[in-house]
Amino acid sequence: MMRHRVPFPFALLRFWGGRLLPMWAFIGLVIFLVQIAVCAIVHDNESVRTFLKFLDVLPPFIKTALGGEMLQAGNVPGLILIGYQHPLVLFLFLLFAVGAPTTLLTGEVQKGAMELILSRPATKTQVYVCASLLTMAGMFALVLVMFLGTVAATRLYDFGQPIPLDLFFRIAVNGGLVAGAAGAIALLAAGVLAGRNRAVGVTVAVLVLDYFAWIVAQWWPRLSFLKPATLFYYSSGAKLARGWPLENMGVLLLIILAASIIGGVVWQRRDLPL
């Protein structure tokens, strides 16, 4: 007996995409405006000097989080990079990375909507693929918006020197892989754990610990061995300045694939509703 092939649920993909769009649009707008605001400060030499003096009196880990040694007067690209590493921007990426898959998977299970979804022509694997596509597309689109914010700022302000947009494009693409890895971890949590709050809590804990381990390892030599074990290590601006960091990008792709596949396998074997 031949098994009937279930068509891909594009209607579900569109419906979920529409649900995520308002959150994505708000986050994208804020990220875009942050890039404009940072560039507005950077193009003013007096504002830069005031900002750097302010950073000098703060704890070292704060300066490290914003760019470390790259934060120097005259290093315009390094100062613009603040907008890519600003805690607010990272928080917004984290908000979408965690919110999208947990809302679409465990959130729908808790509401009882997943039973209705699976009663239609859609398999559990297809449902998981829909959530994965929307999460990954959303993360990469947000990174593109961040890059476009920098492009727009270079048209609005005169920095007194050429701005290497190719560098920021490489940073954006690599940042998309880092963001995608964060989204994949959230997918794994949503596929494995029962309850939206638990999936959100575990994902946030993992990503926050990863971020602080990366920061602390940069200014505490005894913990420098932790750097390669953190996601943010693979977004190093110094390596990107020399070209495409193919090794780092390969590691991030492996993390995305491994976390997404493991989450999908467990999701497929779970008994729903939980």
Report the portion of residues in β strands.
under 5%
Low-confidence stretches: none
Strand segment tally: 0
Globular, elongated, flat, extended or rod-shaped: what is the shape? globular
- The whole-number mean of residue pLDDT values reads 83
Spell the H/E element sequence: HHHHHHHHHHHHH
Helix content: over 70%
Give the CA-CA distance, first to last residue.
Answer: 32 Å
Tally of DSSP helical segments: 13
In the residues, how many domains can be counted?
1
Main β sheet profile:
none
Description:
The relative contact order is 0.14. The mean pLDDT is 83. The protein has helices at residues 10-42, 45-56, 60-66, 76-80, 82-85, 87-104, 106-111, 113-119, 124-156, 165-192, 196-219, 237-241, 246-269. The protein has one domain. The protein is built from 13 helices and no strands. The chain starts with 9 loop residues before the first helix and ends in a 5-residue tail after the last helix. The chain is mainly alpha-helical. It is globular and about 65 Å long.
